[in-house]
Amino acid sequence: MGDHHHGPAKGLSRWLFTTNHKDIGTMYLWFSFAMFILGGTFAMIIRAELFQPGMQLVEPGFFNQMTTLHGLVMVFGAIMPSFVGLANWLIPMMIGAPDMALPRMNNWSFWILPPGFLMLASTLFMEGGAPAFGWTFYAPLSTTYAAPSVTFFIFAIHVLGISSIMGSINIIATIMNMRAPGMTYMKMPLFVWTWFITAFLLVAVMPVLAGAVTMMLMDIHFGTSFFSAAGGGDPVLFQHIFWFFGHPEVYIIILPAFGVVSQVIPAFSRKPLFGYASMVYATAAIAILSFVVWAHHMYTVGMPVAGELFFMYATMLIAVPTGVKVFNWVSTMWRGSLSFETPMLFSIGFLVLFTIGGFTGLMLSIAPADFQYHDTYFVVAHFHYVMVAGAVFSMTSAVYFWLPKWTGRMYNETMGKVHFWISFVGFNVTFFPQHFVGLAGMPRRVPDYALQFADFNMMSSIGAFVYGASQIMFLYNVIATIVSGEKVSDEQVWDGAEGLEWTLPTPAPYHTFEVPPKIEATPAHG
Amino acid sequence: MSIKKSLVTAGAALSALPIMALAQNQVNMSPGVTRVGAEIYDLHMLIMIICIVIGVGVFGVMLYSIVYHRKSKGFVASQFHESTKVEIAWTVVPFLILIGMAVPATSTLLEVYDNDDAELDILVTGHQWKWRYEYLNAEGENVSFFSNLATPQEEIYNSEAKGEHYLLEVDEPLVIPVDTKVRFLITANDVIHSWWVPEIAVKRDAIPGFINEAWSKVDQEGIYRGQCTELCGSYHGFMPIVVHAVSQDEFQGWMSAKRADKDAQIAASSVDLSLDALMTEGEAVYKTQCLACHGGQGEGGVGKAISGSSIAMGDLGVHLDVGIKGVAGTAMQAFGEQLTDVEMAAVITYQRNAFGNNTGDVVQPSDVAQHKQG
């Protein structure tokens, strides 16, 4: 109504009622950082208990609550919302759209998240304690044998799922309908492409997760036996349903991270992304394959050998498109004109460590070898290499990369670099030794361990404290930038950065591209 | 260059840490004591070496680029951004390498799944938080027993020094003969567990209501230790597995002794015991079976308090029911099969007289046997 050129509303109502993609993006980013700190606190408790053999700080039952909440909060609270926040900020700016296609739903999909997590966190104070069955919540530990708080957990998952589905529908609608004239699909920046594919994955699998938790609810409260053999059901059915969601889920987490790195590496190599088209196809191939590999998480459940072979071969195949991506990034750097500002450091850190995580992933795909790796610390090391050094490093890179465009102020480069090096060393000291203890026979999710694992566990804990503490520096740097950072002198910010978002004024105004931009005849990225 | 310097420092720190520890810690998978285990180890090494070689190549190219293609050195960027030939090559070559990996992986997997012609069948049942082993015997009665963690609470809670096999020791190990194909039939009583002994190369989930198969043929006599590898509740980290692989003669001797034990137990349950004897035995049973949930002073924890409890001080029949049949839907298990009648009588007597309960009740093994029959 009336004036379309208004600025943000004042006070709390700006945030509560906002339909602005930048405000909503900002809220998602801050919320996810808060969850990152919360999930990180749980991790610190876990590592403190594991610092030495013996039980020192917490009881075994509480330890299990910590591992469960750490996983849930990091996956659903920190990593996923952080990339949704990034999508909100960047997709309209990258495709030349004024806002997201469904702005009111956008507001709603953010604002149901905090109550969802409040509900999840409140279980910590309930009788019987918080969920203690791991973030994978295998039945019947999560049904017949769970604490009463499991019902709150189920509804929390429903809320987070609804939020994710609404967020992804919005992203799909925006990309399909709101591109500026001339912004064809194959001209879209890779970040937009990876999110486009991720959004389809989310819409496909979040309902499956909702189905799984609803069946749990039925088993717990309404006497059904979906997951109980005594009533004609099957506990393994739960695992099939969970991982049919869960495997695409890990690509939901990592594909947008691929997108970020595909923007950052060309910018600091001052060279176009190598193999743009093959990057798009590889992303799609990974997404499609992700639907037919779920049971590689379940090699030891006693599947028939034919099933084992199918899932082994399908899983190994994922190495091909993933390899293509790694080779493309390295080729982008090759004969570029490289510089190493903080975003580039985090992207190179991603590239190296994610590749290591990819290698261990390939090792884990080999079914007979997995009989020795399964549910050991080798797996813990593997997925932290892809989740933390993959998704979190990429996210950190993104914040440093776009923060100057968002705020019009430059972060402290020296502090950024120190943050990178402490994170990089801390991360590796934490997780590299976990490969060793895993191969030597230490199971995951144990609150105490045999003496031969003591040295590496202590090393891991020290690394974790260092990595955790370095995030405080990150928080400080971001706040200092927003409050009193030096004004960006060059509107373009990074001399090598390409894409529509860099053509906007710095800081990006509250409303952008109210008139569609003209897209050059030659694509920026290919 | 400050980046180079910090890179070197970080690299040195990273490589020094594992090497310091390498001297005394196991860092790799064990080939174990079975042929399948050795094959799995070879497969693991093969894939790892291929990954390392590819990694060195990829990271080498990247490092070269990082060192030489720098803006600060005035290197001017090329603008190439595709090459169909190269892109086809790095799609096809990895595919061929994968086929090279899949061939040995498939043959090893088929061997892992070859459960036929076993010479000995053992039913392994996971309970929260202990294992039960039952030797299936077509001709006579089966031999069965529970295998509990033997590490005392004092070691876990750091009031005593930890022993060499801390958390990897049990009161009664599984005994198997060497050079014999042993088939494990694996299931669970409550939640999902997973039975893993790395050195005999068996890991299979124990799933309530279903029976999984796995097998092993151990080459060398020895003691092999493992743990539960599926999160199964609070004490998941405290249900180890110990396997004694012995000669076939020794195995037969052990089996006869177990059968004799069983007969002796049946005989013992008809003899009445004194309150003192029951209390002494009862305290020992309480420590291994009840303490983790009900507390050292019967104060409760995961389970209800026993001190002052209406069950332990009330009707004996109800108390026996709870001990023998457990309480459905809670962590209180049915101990009727896990304990002998003597042990059950002793622990019930102990609970009714310890922790200030002082009921003065004496429960005899024959009472337990009678109660079981209804």
Task: Describe the overall structure.
The complex is a heterodimer of chains A (526) and B (374). Chain A has 526 residues and is mainly alpha-helical. Chain A contains 16 helices and two strands. Chain A has a single domain, classed as Cytochrome c oxidase-like, subunit I domain (Cytochrome C Oxidase, Chain A), CATH 1.20.210. Chain A has helices spanning 12-16, 21-49, 60-95, 103-111, 113-122, 150-177, 190-221, 235-269, 276-289, 305-317, 319-333, 342-365, 367-373, 377-407, 413-440, 454-484, and strands at 409-410, 486-487. Chain A is globular. The two termini of chain A are 41 Å apart. Chain B is an alpha+beta fold. Chain B folds into three domains: 30-73 and 82-114, no CATH class; 120-266, Immunoglobulin-like, CATH 2.60.40.420; 269-372, Cytochrome Bc1 Complex, Chain D, domain 2. Helices cover 43% and strands 16% of the residues of chain B. Chain B is built from ten helices and ten strands. In chain B, the strands form two sheets. A five-stranded mixed sheet of chain B has the order 3-2-1-5-8. A five-stranded mixed sheet of chain B has the order 4-10-9-6-7. In chain B, strand 1 (120-127) and strand 2 form a beta hairpin. The chains are: A mainly alpha (526), B alpha+beta (374). The interface between A and B is large, with 103 and 105 residues.
| Shape category of chain B | elongated
Number of helices of chain B: 10
Mean pLDDT score of chain B: 89
Chain pair sharing the greatest interface:
A-B, 103 and 105 residues
**CATH H-level superfamily title of chain A:** Cytochrome c oxidase-like, subunit I domain
Q: Under CATH, the topology of the largest domain in chain B is which?
A: Immunoglobulin-like
The separation of the N and C termini of chain A measures 41 Å
CATH architectural name of the largest domain in chain B: Sandwich
The tally of beta strands of chain B, per DSSP, is: 10
CATH C-level class of chain A: Mainly Alpha
Strand order of the largest sheet of chain A: 1-2
Helix share of residues of chain B? 40-55%
Roughly what fraction of the amino acids of chain A lie in strands? Answer: under 5%
Q: How would you write the strand order of the largest sheet of chain B?
A: 3-2-1-5-8
Low-pLDDT residue spans of chain A: none
Globally, the shape of chain A reads globular
* Structural class designation of chain B: alpha+beta
